[in-house]
């Protein structure tokens, strides 16, 4: 097969990029190693910034998001006793949308056949070749194949997440990985119960971090931080609900409705950036190039902003023979990536108890939360970052 852009990975980054290119007449194909059901079974992010919503609007795929998603004007930081409301509408005149990543992925997936975007699922053994030059190709197999299939293209877009093959196709001498691994993970629970609060609550309690989030008026998503050595089997639903009630503080606890977990899993936390985000004819987007700790809900939104820059660059290359657009992609994307990394890292440090952090570190967190509670300037900084910096 011959195409202009071969996209590896059919998660939110790959599908968004595919739709944006296809809508502008740039030929592309998406190769995804899993089945559609498997991709949709991964429960992840829940908060959308404007950049993500505006790309869905541009594609005309925002109808369900606008009907079922919930615009949130504010969210709360809690220090174990009080709630500090960050009023995004008042502070920066903006809001975020609460709508699951799974729903975004489903909307993009459902629209692919009717728009003629080719997505090949269950592509096994995907491998990238000749990425340094201007005639790269990708090989893969479908279940039952004896021989490799081949996609010749002008560019490869690596949208295959942190563990995919794209970033690994870049020689070690051509890029630098920057990494920070945190000494805890997030244990998440999804349950069909009404949320305990109409807005999100990020809490830093003596016993650790907790987050109260939601997917709808009848579906809640909660997280606590746990040591990396904990296993999900050690956390019965009851034990987790008890811990959430303590960490979220008395006001939220009084409104928690308990219910059986639909999903419960532990995700490790890490900050990671690979720079540059382009090598030859290979462009990296989303988790393939960077990871943020989930505090601040930036992961999916950062994938969307990469896709915004990447689609612009590729469309200019094919429609206006503009080589510079691709050459400057990495610098443009990274400028925003580093700022989101900084925000996610600083909110993670503020809201979690680090095992090695002593009484002084704890006192600094308490002082900072107290400062934020009483400073409009501090709240504005948080609101500006939470709604998403401009692209
Ligand atoms: P992905 O969603 O990882 O998609 C990559 C796709 O590539 C996948 O479909 C994968 O199957 C496919 N792929 C991988 N390898 C290959 C291959 N060899 N061949 C073909 N296809 C391949 N963010 C938040 O903001 N809040 C959260 O609560 C949150 N929770 C998370 C929990 C977990 C366990 C993880 C891993 C991430 C979480 N994130 C969260 C981050 C957020 O989900 C990601 O930033 C977002 O999914 C990035 O989208 P992506 O398309 O770049 O990568
Ligand atoms: C959710 C996840 C996050 O990482 C976050 O910061 C806010 C909400 C969620 O899954 O709902």
TrEMBL record:
Record-linked Gene3D superfamilies:
D-Amino Acid Oxidase, subunit A, domain 2 (3.30.9.10), FAD/NAD(P)-binding domain (3.50.50.60)
Q: Which GO terms describe its molecular function?
A: 4-hydroxybenzoate 3-monooxygenase activity
- Write down the InterPro entries for this protein, in alphabetical order: FAD-bd, FAD/NAD-bd_sf, HB_mOase, RIFMO-like
> So which domain of life are we looking at?
Bacteria
The EC code for this enzyme is 1.14.13.2
Q: What is this protein called?
A: 4-hydroxybenzoate 3-monooxygenase
**Listed PANTHER family:** P-HYDROXYBENZOATE HYDROXYLASE, TRK SYSTEM POTASSIUM UPTAKE PROTEIN
Question: FAD-binding domain: from which residue to which, for each copy?
Answer: 2-344
Species the sequence originates in: Alteraurantiacibacter palmitatis
- Cite the entry's keywords alphabetically: FAD, Flavoprotein, Oxidoreductase
Kindly give the SUPFAM superfamilies that the UniProt entry links to this protein.
FAD-linked reductases, C-terminal domain (SSF54373), FAD/NAD(P)-binding domain (SSF51905)
Keyword Oxidoreductase, does the record have it?
A: yes
Entry-linked NCBIfam families:
pbenz_hydroxyl (TIGR02360), PRK08243.1 (NF006091)
């Amino acid at each position: 097969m011959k195409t202009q852009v071969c996209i590896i990975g059919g998660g939110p980054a790959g599908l968004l990029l595919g739709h944006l290119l296809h809508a502008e007449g740039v030929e592309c194909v998406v190769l995804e190693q899993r089945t559609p059901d498997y991709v949709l079974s991964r429960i992840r992010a829940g908060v959308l910034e404007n950049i993500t919503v505006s790309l869905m609007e541009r594609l005309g795929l925002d109808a369900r998001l606008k009907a079922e998603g919930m615009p949130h004007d504010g969210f709360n930081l809690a220090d174990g006793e009080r709630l500090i409301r960050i009023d995004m509408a008042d502070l920066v005149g903006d809001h975020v949308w609460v709508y699951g990543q799974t729903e975004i992925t489903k909307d993009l997936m459902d629209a692919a056949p009717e728009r003629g975007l080719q997505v090949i699922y269950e592509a096994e053994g995907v491998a990238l070749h000749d990425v340094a030059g201007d005639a790269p190709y990708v090989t893969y197999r479908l279940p039952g194949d004896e021989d490799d299939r081949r996609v010749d293209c002008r560019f490869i877009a690596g949208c295959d997440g942190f563990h995919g093959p794209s970033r690994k196709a870049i020689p070690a001498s051509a890029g630098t990985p920057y990494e920070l691994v945190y000494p805890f993970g997030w244990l998440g629970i999804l349950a069909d119960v009404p949320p305990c609060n109409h807005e999100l609550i990020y809490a830093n309690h003596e016993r650790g971090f907790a987050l109260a989030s939601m997917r709808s008026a009848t579906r809640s998503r909660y997280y606590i931080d746990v040591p990396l050595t904990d296993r999900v089997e050690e956390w019965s639903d009851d034990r987790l609900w008890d811990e959430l009630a303590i960490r979220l503080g008395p006001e939220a606890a009084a409104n928690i409705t308990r219910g059986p977990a639909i999903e419960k899993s532990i995700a490790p936390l890490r900050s990671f950036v690979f720079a540059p985000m382009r090598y030859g004819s290979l462009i990296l987007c989303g988790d393939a190039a960077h990871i943020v700790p989930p505090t601040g809900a930036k992961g999916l939104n950062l994938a969307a902003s990469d896709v915004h820059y990447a689609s612009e660059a590729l469309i200019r290359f094919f429609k206006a023979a503009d080589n510079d657009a691709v050459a400057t992609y990495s610098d443009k994307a990274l400028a925003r990536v580093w700022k989101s990394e900084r925000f996610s890292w600083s909110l993670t440090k503020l809201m979690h108890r680090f095992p090695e952090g002593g009484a002084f570190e704890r006192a600094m967190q308490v002082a900072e939360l107290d400062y934020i509670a009483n400073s409009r300037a501090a709240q504005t900084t948080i609101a500006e970052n939470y709604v998403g910096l401009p692209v």
